[in-house]
């Protein structure tokens, strides 16, 4: 698949046992990545678009308030 090795493909696997251990910010829990991993490209595309629009809105808000983006 995508010329990845078996190891590379397995890096994003999400075992049921891991769900309670992973931080809520772990990228393997992102809905766009889950959709893509599960072959639901419509869900993945919609989630990616939602995330990008959220980022654009945040950037517009910062520009409106003359704020610079800062790391946390």
From TrEMBL:
Residues 45-72 have a biased composition (Basic and acidic residues). One of its GO terms (molecular function) is lipid binding. SUPFAM superfamilies: Oxysterol-binding protein-like (SSF144000). It comes from the Eukaryota. Residues 33-72 are annotated as: Disordered. This is Uncharacterized protein. It comes from Xenopus tropicalis (Western clawed frog).
């Amino acid at each position: 698949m995508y010329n990845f090795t078996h190891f590379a493909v397995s890096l994003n696997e999400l075992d049921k046992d891991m769900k309670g251990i992973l931080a809520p910010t772990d990228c393997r829990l992102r809905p766009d990545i889950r959709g893509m991993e599960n072959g639901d490209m419509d869900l993945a595309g919609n989630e990616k678009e939602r995330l990008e629009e959220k980022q654009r809105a945040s950037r517009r808000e910062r520009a409106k308030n003359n704020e610079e983006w800062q790391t946390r």
